[in-house]
Records
---
Amino acid sequence: MDTRQDVCSVHQLMTVKKLSRGKHKSGKLQHDETEADMLLIYALALLLVGLFAVNGIFAYQSKHIDPAFWTTVWYQTKLIPLFFAANLMIGYGVKFVHQVFGNLTFALTLSKGVEIIVCVVLGFFFMKEVPKWNTYAGLAMVIAGFWVTKMKG
């Protein structure tokens, strides 16, 4: 017997087991809502921490690091491990949102919305920029964009 057929058979068996676990008596697929909710909470937490780390590094750099080239290079080099960890968090956050909603466009749009909110918060803490009415109007447009993206069409 071919090894490739064995692998395909195992994959098919695993898929059938996953589907049969989630079936209701009527035969329709049933979602485990608590599992999806927890995955979404993990995703948002990972996105928040990762985006706060990356944007916080850049905000600190713009406020406190000399803009000379080699000073900036040294600052960025020291923070490579933090960038790597933040990148993993953001990547897994997007992946988990995609698993929950099944829509990559929505997952990426949601991550950008979270990033915009993080930038507003960091702008307030680092630059003392108080959000004005147009900031809130822009955030409302982003939220409306989420709604439009998630609409069935």
---
Amino acid sequence: MTKMTYEELVQALLDRVKNDVDKREGSVIFDAIAPCAYFLTQMGFQLENFLDLVLPDTAVGEYLDRAVGGWGIIRKPATTAMRKVETSASVPIGSLWGINELVYRIDRMDSTNVYHATCTTVGDKGNQYSGQLQPITNGIVGITANLTDIITPGTDTESDEALRQRFYVKAQLPVTSGNANHYIQWALEVPGTGAAKAMPLDGGPGTVTVLVVDDKKAISSGIVPKVQSYIDTVRPIGATVTVQSPQALTINVTANILLDKSRTASEIKQDFEAALDEFLKDMIFENYRVSYAKIGNLLLDIPGVEDFDTLLINGKNGNVTVGSKQIPVKGTVSLSEVSMVGTD
């Protein structure tokens, strides 16, 4: 049924009333019909919204959780960051240390004055800071501590779009016991995994190589052992599975740009770098050719760019091929402002 506005619904209801009755605004029949039309309009809107909430391609939040739950898909929860803490002297196991409103708990000593610590706040925030820690536990005096390496990165709760993409993988890619799609599905079930690729027989009969990146579509050594450990518990007996990070293929871009004077060159470069980074991330494990034409269109779509020439990708004016075990990663971007383009 065609969705009707409040005015259209009022008129449709009035049309059902005999013409020998006063139907002008303010009349008894108009005032009786108007509230009904208002609430019917609201119900129509809510019903339309309800359909969006129950279908996996449009549902959000808890409604998406319920929509995909029937497929056995559960939203990946946030995880805590595990960090290395280096101190000037021995500190108690279980002691608490703070930096920028975050608190880290000392779990164990890995070597002399080097400790394994867990952030008490779940999510990516626990990965963001490094530097000098302040003691929170009473009785720690004269000891300095520094938060250094990330041992295992913390991850945020899985986003709606990431959960939706996992649903599409399960619903649209046929899975049998231990086929390539199954390994991709298993890898994506691990918190922190953003994309995966399975390569059967990569090392010979009975072998499978699984390439993974983190939930920011970046190479992360921390996600590899987590995926390896999980797949080892679910893989078919006899399969030799190796989980690896892909190799980075750096994509460097240079070009001369003609500006329309509405924005500065630095603003345009910043926007182009962000767009290029997003474009390359969307390619990961899906497309193995960095298109020269698409990069050019990307540059032209940046507000403030009137035209360009001498566009080079990795020093060439053509497409760049990405290897089967590589992912494209944004490198350096050099945009030179010129007064005219297209001349020798």
---
Amino acid sequence: MNLQLIHRDDLPLGGFAGLKEHRLVIDKNIGGDDGVWNGIGNFVYLADARFLPKGETYLHPHHEIDVITIVVDGRLTHEGSLEHGRSMVANQAQVQRAGGEGFEHNEINPDDDRNRIIQIWVLPEKKGESVAYKFYDIEKGKLTRIYGGRKNQGATLDSHTNLDVGVLNKGQKINKEGVFMAYITRGSGDLDGTIVKDGDLVRGVGLKFTAALDDVQIIIITVNDRHFQSEEKPLWEGKHNEQSV
């Protein structure tokens, strides 16, 4: 398998307001350039962020984007027009669909220590959807689907782009067919003969991953066009610009 790999710490450290972040994916559809990767499917953005003590993003809007937040370390307090006041801890995730109406949010580190979150953006299948909010506990020892699937189910927001998060035990294996992108956010493992560790973003075809330690966290993005063969799937054209986090 021909793997491509980039490491977070080889990229510039940026940030805004009360956080510092590395941006590993900024797709050309939202203004990305050759310095970072494009996504797959409708996945267009990935940032690995650490909030300063008591840091926050301040209230800001999003439109026509699905915003996924995964807490890796520490705590996060969510404020905004969807599920105001929600508290999150490590191994929890929230998914916010802006749709045509849009939403505003502010993410806050309530503690005196830095926390760490991953934020991912996915373009919705069509414009003008209703706003929506989902919350997930990421279970240990398995993959938890937090995004993607058919429109006729309610467990996740619908998309042909799927997002799974695993918190794995030592020796636990994951196999996925087809094109994938995977980001290691805790621990390390073997990905088809290549040792990967926290901060490695990998792209390839046919994922075969084995956790090297307990409590390994991995985020996996895949695309399943077969779920949408009978549904209209509009193409996004031009630039889609949003503020991160």
---
Amino acid sequence: MNIGLYAKAIAGAVVAGLTAATTALADGTITLVEWMVIAGAFLAAAAAVWAVPTLPEGVARYGKIATSALIALAGSLGTGLADGALSSQEIITAVIALLVGSGLVASVPNAAGDDPADPVTRKLVPVSTATKAALVTGGRSYVGKHYATPTDSEG
């Protein structure tokens, strides 16, 4: 198992959990409800950041960063709202969670993506026209008036 394939998910989960815990500690204690929000933020960030594919181009290449930042923000606000109100310290901590959530995940390098067992991080490769035709026809090539598989004899 290549741990690098999960580095961004681990970073996102750690940021979401720690920033939610920091917000929860604003009043000096962590309640059971706050612990549940902290655990939820940690698990949600791990799953969501892992599930977002690593894409090389366009706006989609920032998907993991945005996902991590938003979940860290939501976790921080969630623990702050556990007592029914947000203090100015909790709001500032939530903004810091947003910034740290995006910055840390952005700084973690992308994995090589060469693990065939991990469908999320596999590199996208261009497919030739012949390969597309073979996929459409189920691997058969058109010969005369019938389809022949590559193992059929043409004679």
